[in-house]
Amino acid sequence: MTWMVTGGAGYIGSHVVRAFGQVGIPAVVLDDLSSGHREFVPEEVPFVQGSILDTDLVTAALREHGVTGVVHLAGFKYAGVSVQRPLHTYEQNVTGTAHLLEAMQSAGVTRMVFSSSAAVYGTPDVDLVTEDTATAPESPYGESKLIGEWLLRDQARATELHHTSLRYFNVVGSGTPELADTSPHNLFPLVLDALAEGRTPRINGDDYATPDGTCVRDYVHVADLATSHVAAARALSEGRELQRVYNLGSGDGVSVREIMTAMAQGTGIAFEPEVAPRRPGDPDRIVASGEAAARDLDWVMRHTLTEMVTSAWQARQAR
Protein backbone atom coordinates (compact mmCIF):
# COMPACT_ATOMS: atom_id res chain seq x y z
CA MET A 1 0.00 0.00 0.00
CA THR A 2 1.64 3.20 -1.24
CA TRP A 3 0.02 6.64 -1.23
CA MET A 4 0.94 9.52 -3.51
CA VAL A 5 0.84 12.96 -1.91
CA THR A 6 0.40 15.65 -4.56
CA GLY A 7 1.84 18.91 -3.26
CA GLY A 8 3.89 16.82 -0.85
CA ALA A 9 6.78 19.31 -0.86
CA GLY A 10 4.54 22.04 0.50
CA TYR A 11 3.85 23.08 4.08
CA ILE A 12 0.83 20.85 4.71
CA GLY A 13 1.83 18.11 2.28
CA SER A 14 5.24 17.58 3.86
CA HIS A 15 3.56 17.07 7.24
CA VAL A 16 1.20 14.52 5.66
CA VAL A 17 4.17 12.64 4.19
CA ARG A 18 5.78 12.44 7.63
CA ALA A 19 2.51 11.31 9.18
CA PHE A 20 2.40 8.43 6.68
CA GLY A 21 5.96 7.53 7.62
CA GLN A 22 5.12 7.49 11.32
CA VAL A 23 2.54 4.73 10.79
CA GLY A 24 4.68 2.78 8.33
CA ILE A 25 2.75 3.54 5.13
CA PRO A 26 5.00 4.19 2.11
CA ALA A 27 4.49 7.52 0.33
CA VAL A 28 5.64 9.09 -2.92
CA VAL A 29 5.58 12.84 -3.54
CA LEU A 30 4.49 14.63 -6.71
CA ASP A 31 5.16 18.37 -6.71
CA ASP A 32 6.05 20.98 -9.32
CA LEU A 33 7.88 23.08 -6.67
CA SER A 34 5.99 26.23 -7.64
CA SER A 35 5.49 26.89 -3.93
CA GLY A 36 6.89 23.75 -2.33
CA HIS A 37 10.46 23.02 -1.24
CA ARG A 38 12.46 19.99 -2.32
CA GLU A 39 14.22 19.93 1.06
CA PHE A 40 10.87 19.39 2.79
CA VAL A 41 10.71 15.86 1.33
CA PRO A 42 12.61 13.22 3.34
CA GLU A 43 15.50 11.64 1.44
CA GLU A 44 13.99 8.17 1.65
CA VAL A 45 10.69 9.25 0.07
CA PRO A 46 10.52 8.99 -3.75
CA PHE A 47 10.06 12.40 -5.34
CA VAL A 48 8.58 13.14 -8.77
CA GLN A 49 8.89 16.73 -9.95
CA GLY A 50 6.00 17.63 -12.19
CA SER A 51 2.52 19.04 -12.50
CA ILE A 52 -0.83 17.32 -12.00
CA LEU A 53 -1.69 18.83 -15.39
CA ASP A 54 0.76 16.40 -17.00
CA THR A 55 -1.47 13.34 -17.24
CA ASP A 56 1.13 11.09 -18.82
CA LEU A 57 3.73 11.90 -16.16
CA VAL A 58 1.28 11.33 -13.32
CA THR A 59 0.00 8.07 -14.82
CA ALA A 60 3.56 6.78 -15.19
CA ALA A 61 4.43 7.76 -11.62
CA LEU A 62 1.35 6.04 -10.22
CA ARG A 63 2.21 2.84 -12.04
CA GLU A 64 5.95 2.93 -11.34
CA HIS A 65 5.49 3.29 -7.58
CA GLY A 66 2.54 0.93 -7.22
CA VAL A 67 0.33 3.66 -5.83
CA THR A 68 -3.01 2.56 -4.36
CA GLY A 69 -4.35 5.95 -3.24
CA VAL A 70 -3.78 9.70 -3.58
CA VAL A 71 -3.89 12.50 -1.04
CA HIS A 72 -4.49 15.48 -3.29
CA LEU A 73 -3.05 18.70 -1.85
CA ALA A 74 -1.53 20.26 -4.97
CA GLY A 75 -3.19 23.46 -6.09
CA PHE A 76 -3.26 27.24 -6.07
CA LYS A 77 -4.29 28.11 -2.52
CA TYR A 78 -4.41 31.91 -2.29
CA ALA A 79 -8.04 32.98 -2.07
CA GLY A 80 -7.37 36.71 -2.31
CA VAL A 81 -5.03 36.39 -5.28
CA SER A 82 -7.49 34.09 -7.01
CA VAL A 83 -9.79 37.07 -7.55
CA GLN A 84 -7.09 38.65 -9.72
CA ARG A 85 -6.06 35.34 -11.33
CA PRO A 86 -9.26 33.35 -11.83
CA LEU A 87 -8.15 31.53 -14.98
CA HIS A 88 -4.90 30.40 -13.36
CA THR A 89 -6.81 29.26 -10.27
CA TYR A 90 -9.30 27.20 -12.27
CA GLU A 91 -6.57 25.68 -14.41
CA GLN A 92 -4.54 24.55 -11.42
CA ASN A 93 -7.40 23.47 -9.16
CA VAL A 94 -10.14 22.30 -11.52
CA THR A 95 -8.39 21.25 -14.72
CA GLY A 96 -5.52 19.86 -12.64
CA THR A 97 -7.85 17.73 -10.53
CA ALA A 98 -9.60 16.44 -13.65
CA HIS A 99 -6.25 15.42 -15.16
CA LEU A 100 -5.24 13.75 -11.90
CA LEU A 101 -8.47 11.76 -11.82
CA GLU A 102 -7.89 10.74 -15.43
CA ALA A 103 -4.40 9.52 -14.56
CA MET A 104 -5.74 7.61 -11.57
CA GLN A 105 -8.38 5.90 -13.71
CA SER A 106 -5.75 4.92 -16.28
CA ALA A 107 -3.50 3.49 -13.58
CA GLY A 108 -6.31 1.73 -11.71
CA VAL A 109 -5.98 3.85 -8.54
CA THR A 110 -9.35 4.01 -6.80
CA ARG A 111 -8.88 5.98 -3.56
CA MET A 112 -8.55 9.72 -2.98
CA VAL A 113 -8.42 12.06 -0.01
CA PHE A 114 -9.02 15.58 -1.32
CA SER A 115 -7.78 18.73 0.38
CA SER A 116 -10.77 21.04 0.14
CA SER A 117 -11.37 24.27 2.06
CA ALA A 118 -13.78 26.01 4.42
CA ALA A 119 -13.78 28.71 1.72
CA VAL A 120 -16.56 26.71 0.06
CA TYR A 121 -18.94 28.13 2.71
CA GLY A 122 -18.32 31.79 1.88
CA THR A 123 -19.85 33.92 4.64
CA PRO A 124 -22.16 31.55 6.53
CA ASP A 125 -25.01 32.93 8.61
CA VAL A 126 -24.56 30.37 11.41
CA ASP A 127 -22.34 30.46 14.50
CA LEU A 128 -21.00 26.97 13.90
CA VAL A 129 -20.51 25.52 10.41
CA THR A 130 -21.32 21.85 9.87
CA GLU A 131 -21.10 19.64 6.82
CA ASP A 132 -24.77 20.43 6.18
CA THR A 133 -24.22 24.20 6.04
CA ALA A 134 -24.99 25.58 2.59
CA THR A 135 -21.99 26.19 0.33
CA ALA A 136 -21.69 29.68 -1.13
CA PRO A 137 -18.04 30.35 -2.11
CA GLU A 138 -17.06 33.99 -2.66
CA SER A 139 -13.77 33.62 -4.53
CA PRO A 140 -12.50 31.64 -7.51
CA TYR A 141 -10.41 29.67 -5.01
CA GLY A 142 -13.45 28.62 -2.97
CA GLU A 143 -15.39 27.86 -6.12
CA SER A 144 -12.56 25.76 -7.52
CA LYS A 145 -12.45 23.67 -4.35
CA LEU A 146 -16.18 23.05 -4.47
CA ILE A 147 -15.94 22.04 -8.12
CA GLY A 148 -13.12 19.68 -7.15
CA GLU A 149 -15.50 17.98 -4.72
CA TRP A 150 -18.08 17.69 -7.50
CA LEU A 151 -15.50 16.12 -9.80
CA LEU A 152 -14.78 13.43 -7.21
CA ARG A 153 -18.49 12.83 -6.66
CA ASP A 154 -19.20 12.44 -10.35
CA GLN A 155 -16.14 10.27 -11.01
CA ALA A 156 -17.22 8.00 -8.15
CA ARG A 157 -20.61 7.57 -9.80
CA ALA A 158 -18.94 6.54 -13.04
CA THR A 159 -16.08 4.43 -11.67
CA GLU A 160 -14.91 2.56 -8.57
CA LEU A 161 -13.45 5.71 -6.97
CA HIS A 162 -13.69 5.84 -3.17
CA HIS A 163 -13.09 9.28 -1.75
CA THR A 164 -13.58 11.92 0.89
CA SER A 165 -12.91 15.66 1.00
CA LEU A 166 -11.54 17.49 4.03
CA ARG A 167 -12.56 21.12 4.55
CA TYR A 168 -10.46 23.33 6.80
CA PHE A 169 -9.48 26.94 7.25
CA ASN A 170 -6.35 28.35 8.93
CA VAL A 171 -3.58 25.78 9.27
CA VAL A 172 -0.73 26.90 11.53
CA GLY A 173 2.22 25.72 13.59
CA SER A 174 4.88 23.18 12.72
CA GLY A 175 5.39 19.53 13.57
CA THR A 176 9.17 19.86 13.22
CA PRO A 177 11.35 22.98 12.97
CA GLU A 178 12.54 22.26 9.43
CA LEU A 179 8.99 22.54 8.04
CA ALA A 180 7.85 26.17 8.10
CA ASP A 181 4.85 27.87 6.55
CA THR A 182 6.42 30.15 3.92
CA SER A 183 3.18 31.51 2.43
CA PRO A 184 3.29 35.26 1.70
CA HIS A 185 -0.43 35.53 2.53
CA ASN A 186 -1.09 33.57 5.74
CA LEU A 187 -1.46 35.36 9.08
CA PHE A 188 1.11 33.41 11.11
CA PRO A 189 4.07 33.82 8.72
CA LEU A 190 3.14 37.46 8.11
CA VAL A 191 3.19 38.22 11.84
CA LEU A 192 6.31 36.18 12.55
CA ASP A 193 8.19 37.72 9.61
CA ALA A 194 7.28 41.18 10.87
CA LEU A 195 8.53 40.41 14.38
CA ALA A 196 11.74 38.80 13.08
CA GLU A 197 12.42 41.88 10.95
CA GLY A 198 11.60 44.41 13.67
CA ARG A 199 8.30 45.56 12.15
CA THR A 200 4.96 45.90 13.92
CA PRO A 201 2.28 43.35 12.95
CA ARG A 202 -1.06 44.65 11.75
CA ILE A 203 -4.69 43.86 12.45
CA ASN A 204 -7.10 44.49 9.59
CA GLY A 205 -10.13 45.97 11.30
CA ASP A 206 -11.16 46.03 14.96
CA ASP A 207 -14.83 46.94 14.62
CA TYR A 208 -16.35 43.55 13.84
CA ALA A 209 -19.32 42.12 15.74
CA THR A 210 -17.14 39.91 17.95
CA PRO A 211 -16.19 40.12 21.64
CA ASP A 212 -12.95 42.06 21.00
CA GLY A 213 -13.86 43.59 17.64
CA THR A 214 -11.49 41.45 15.54
CA CYS A 215 -12.33 38.57 13.21
CA VAL A 216 -12.80 35.11 14.72
CA ARG A 217 -11.54 32.09 12.80
CA ASP A 218 -10.61 28.43 13.15
CA TYR A 219 -6.91 27.83 13.72
CA VAL A 220 -5.74 24.22 13.65
CA HIS A 221 -2.28 22.73 14.04
CA VAL A 222 -0.76 21.29 10.89
CA ALA A 223 0.35 18.06 12.60
CA ASP A 224 -3.19 17.39 13.84
CA LEU A 225 -4.44 18.01 10.33
CA ALA A 226 -1.88 15.60 8.85
CA THR A 227 -2.93 12.86 11.28
CA SER A 228 -6.53 13.03 10.03
CA HIS A 229 -5.47 12.95 6.37
CA VAL A 230 -3.66 9.69 7.07
CA ALA A 231 -6.63 8.37 9.08
CA ALA A 232 -8.86 9.06 6.06
CA ALA A 233 -6.40 7.28 3.76
CA ARG A 234 -6.27 4.24 6.06
CA ALA A 235 -10.05 4.09 6.30
CA LEU A 236 -10.40 4.08 2.51
CA SER A 237 -7.66 1.46 2.19
CA GLU A 238 -9.52 -0.76 4.67
CA GLY A 239 -12.75 -0.44 2.69
CA ARG A 240 -14.58 1.66 5.26
CA GLU A 241 -17.16 4.04 3.87
CA LEU A 242 -16.64 7.68 4.79
CA GLN A 243 -18.78 10.77 4.43
CA ARG A 244 -18.31 12.69 1.20
CA VAL A 245 -17.00 15.69 3.16
CA TYR A 246 -15.67 16.42 6.64
CA ASN A 247 -14.90 19.67 8.41
CA LEU A 248 -11.62 19.71 10.33
CA GLY A 249 -12.74 22.51 12.64
CA SER A 250 -11.90 23.58 16.16
CA GLY A 251 -15.49 24.14 17.21
CA ASP A 252 -14.31 27.21 19.10
CA GLY A 253 -12.64 30.00 17.18
CA VAL A 254 -9.85 32.39 18.07
CA SER A 255 -9.83 36.12 17.35
CA VAL A 256 -7.03 37.93 15.57
CA ARG A 257 -6.45 39.97 18.74
CA GLU A 258 -6.02 36.75 20.71
CA ILE A 259 -3.55 35.54 18.10
CA MET A 260 -1.52 38.73 18.55
CA THR A 261 -1.44 38.28 22.32
CA ALA A 262 -0.30 34.68 21.91
CA MET A 263 2.37 35.82 19.44
CA ALA A 264 3.83 38.27 21.93
CA GLN A 265 3.88 35.61 24.64
CA GLY A 266 5.19 32.81 22.43
CA THR A 267 8.00 34.83 20.85
CA GLY A 268 8.89 36.89 23.90
CA ILE A 269 8.62 40.05 21.77
CA ALA A 270 6.29 42.62 23.30
CA PHE A 271 4.31 44.68 20.79
CA GLU A 272 1.03 46.48 20.26
CA PRO A 273 -0.34 45.68 16.80
CA GLU A 274 -1.23 48.44 14.40
CA VAL A 275 -4.88 48.62 13.41
CA ALA A 276 -5.54 49.03 9.68
CA PRO A 277 -8.86 49.29 7.84
CA ARG A 278 -10.96 46.22 7.22
CA ARG A 279 -10.27 44.08 4.18
CA PRO A 280 -13.28 43.80 1.86
CA GLY A 281 -15.27 40.62 2.29
CA ASP A 282 -13.89 39.50 5.66
CA PRO A 283 -16.80 38.03 7.68
CA ASP A 284 -17.01 38.55 11.44
CA ARG A 285 -16.74 34.89 12.36
CA ILE A 286 -16.25 31.52 10.68
CA VAL A 287 -15.87 28.52 12.97
CA ALA A 288 -16.53 24.89 12.01
CA SER A 289 -17.55 21.84 13.99
CA GLY A 290 -15.20 18.88 13.86
CA GLU A 291 -17.58 16.34 15.45
CA ALA A 292 -17.96 14.08 12.42
CA ALA A 293 -14.21 14.02 11.78
CA ALA A 294 -13.58 13.29 15.46
CA ARG A 295 -15.85 10.27 15.14
CA ASP A 296 -14.41 8.90 11.88
CA LEU A 297 -10.95 10.39 11.27
CA ASP A 298 -9.14 10.63 14.62
CA TRP A 299 -9.61 14.40 14.52
CA VAL A 300 -8.42 15.90 17.83
CA MET A 301 -7.11 19.37 18.64
CA ARG A 302 -3.96 18.08 20.31
CA HIS A 303 -2.14 21.44 20.36
CA THR A 304 -2.98 24.60 22.27
CA LEU A 305 -2.79 28.06 20.73
CA THR A 306 0.46 28.63 22.61
CA GLU A 307 1.94 25.46 21.10
CA MET A 308 0.79 26.54 17.65
CA VAL A 309 2.63 29.84 18.05
CA THR A 310 5.82 28.50 19.64
CA SER A 311 6.22 25.71 17.07
CA ALA A 312 5.69 28.18 14.21
CA TRP A 313 8.21 30.58 15.73
CA GLN A 314 10.82 27.80 16.12
CA ALA A 315 10.34 26.88 12.46
CA ARG A 316 10.61 30.54 11.42
CA GLN A 317 13.89 30.91 13.32
CA ALA A 318 15.27 27.73 11.77
CA ARG A 319 14.84 29.02 8.21
From TrEMBL:
One of its GO terms (biological process) is galactose catabolic process via UDP-galactose, Leloir pathway. Residues 4-249 form the NAD-dependent epimerase/dehydratase domain. It comes from Cellulomonas triticagri. Pathway: Carbohydrate metabolism; galactose metabolism. This is UDP-glucose 4-epimerase. GO terms for molecular function: UDP-glucose 4-epimerase activity. InterPro entries: Epimerase_deHydtase, NAD(P)-bd_dom_sf, UDP_G4E. Pfam families: Epimerase. Its EC number is 5.1.3.2. It comes from the Bacteria. It catalyses: UDP-alpha-D-glucose = UDP-alpha-D-galactose. Belongs to the NAD(P)-dependent epimerase/dehydratase family. Keywords: Carbohydrate metabolism, Isomerase, NAD. It is an enzyme of class 5 (isomerase). Its cofactor is NAD(+).
